[in-house]
């Protein structure tokens, strides 16, 4: 034992207790985060500055500066994937927000206690479902010959649609599955926001206007904005890394109809094994996510006191 | 002219009856106060008038029109809440203007109305502030301002002063009274504070457990309470009650027995004598402020337990069977705990109640 340690032991500063207690409680979480969050990010950052093709280990992994980044930014497939991802986000988010808000408003109405708590529990089911399973379910629903989607269409008198083999059909299918999975999340967030509105404030407004829309717009909306901001941030981060569901359903096809950015990155990294380029793409996405989040917070987030 | 009429209004939550049939009428311009202990249903009743709570049965009329099932906004009533209920994200001006905006009034009129209300309530300097930057008293003023700009038919107040400190409370009380006089509007005010009820009301409705105990002007309730509940509720300190027994009745002369009475007996000349009989239980009510100390003709002979000096007056607590007898007397009588205390009272100030607690 070193001299410092023995003298420390003599003075008995108890490191397992007192002001050290929070440290020990935090340590496991912080260490885990470092291990699975920070370390891979730093690894990706370093890799993104290297030529790192693991099928050609003999060439080594030399530093190439910003070469990977230049390649990515001049790659038209990267941009079209990113554009497709944006299109996907713009397609799903309004539907999820509107449907989610409608569900939240219905559940916020007084009465029907048991049915409502049942509905609230049901809302968690899609959220708790693994993306890959959602993809598998999607494949069954949108199967051309025995899928439920086409059966419903036949009831309405429409002929079968070959969902997953046509460009528009496949895109619509992944949009529908994403809406299925994420609308409940929006509903829960908005429901929480609605329950934040103090009862007496809602009542004061009901004495002044009988319009439900005015109540929503002027009294409830301010309480929903923080939740909406959270939804937008989480959803844009999530859409940028959305992989499993789409991969299971369509593998990015047909053609490049559902080739979202994360599927493209996965292909570059694990089909072409160009990890340097894939890392650069991932880092660029990370930066994009942070910028988008800051923008949302700046533009939308208003705390109600 | 009857302006507000409640006709056998009832409210049930499932099997629990909260309001068990309340009927009552108010004239235009009257200031009516609902008073009662917590849980008596006074707030529920007010919220039913506002339309925020459904009426289980009965009918409700405002200004000659039945509004029992009308939407709150269409009843043309305004309400001041205990928590003020200001819109937190709107400025003071916007808070007051909201109702007028919703009613699609022209902008110039909105501005004129809000500025007028702000002038009356001295809020002109605060119009741009958000509610969170205001003190409790200022918030309450804004809440009142919001209710007056719309010129409602009926003003409702739900314990509006409960969240304020004592000094501000009495100040706002005076302001509400002034406002009532200035506007001449019909107001219904809920409180559990009998001082607010006494000072503000033209008429008080005393409620207990969903039923009306008595309706009357503050002085009527004070002078002729219908029962022991109202007698005990109105007046501070609370009325003393002595559970005596009738010893003899002859004509209009009534003799009551209790150890607290001087000589064990209290003899009274009262028309109530005819309504009771020998051996019946009678509750004698004596207001602390009517009792005088150590003058001739003692009614009560007691021992002083302790005395609280309030400066200008003294509150005396005397030992007796059951609850202590309290007397409120001017000045500072020279008495020590343990001293004999004789109290007398003008016989016209003696209240008598029967075994069921109803006034005799």
TrEMBL record, chain A:
Subcellular location field: Cell membrane
PANTHER family membership: BLR7065 PROTEIN, INTEGRAL MEMBRANE SUGAR TRANSPORT PROTEIN
Listed PROSITE patterns: ABC_TM1
Pfam families (UniProt xref): BPD_transp_1
TM region positions: 21-46, 88-107, 119-142, 170-194, 215-234, 278-297
Designated name of the protein: Multiple sugar transport system permease protein
Domain ABC transmembrane type-1 residue range list: 82-296
Signal sequence region: none
Topology within the bilayer: Multi-pass membrane protein
Keywords associated with the record: Cell membrane, Membrane, Sugar transport, Transmembrane, Transmembrane helix, Transport
Highest taxon above the source species: Bacteria
Family: Belongs to the binding-protein-dependent transport system permease family.
UniProt keyword annotation of Transmembrane helix present: yes
SUPFAM superfamilies: MetI-like
Presence of keyword Ligase: no
Automatic annotation (TrEMBL), chain B:
ABC transporter domain ranges (all copies): 4-234
Keyword Cytoplasm carried by entry: no
InterPro entries on file: AAA+_ATPase, ABC_transporter-like_ATP-bd, ABC_transporter-like_CS, ABC_transpr_MalK-like, ABC_transpr_MalK/UgpC-like, Mo/tungstate-bd_C_term_dom, OB_MalK-like, P-loop_NTPase
Keyword tags: ATP-binding, Cell inner membrane, Cell membrane, Membrane, Nucleotide-binding, Sugar transport, Transport
Family annotation (PROSITE patterns): ABC_TRANSPORTER_1, ABC_TRANSPORTER_2
Domain of life: Bacteria
Entry-linked Pfam families: ABC_tran, OB_MalK
Family designation: Belongs to the ABC transporter superfamily.
Classification via NCBIfam families: PRK11650.1
Protein name, UniProt field: ABC-type sugar transport system ATPase subunit
Organism: Ancylobacter vacuolatus
Highest classification ranks of the organism: Bacteria, Pseudomonadati, Pseudomonadota, Alphaproteobacteria, Hyphomicrobiales
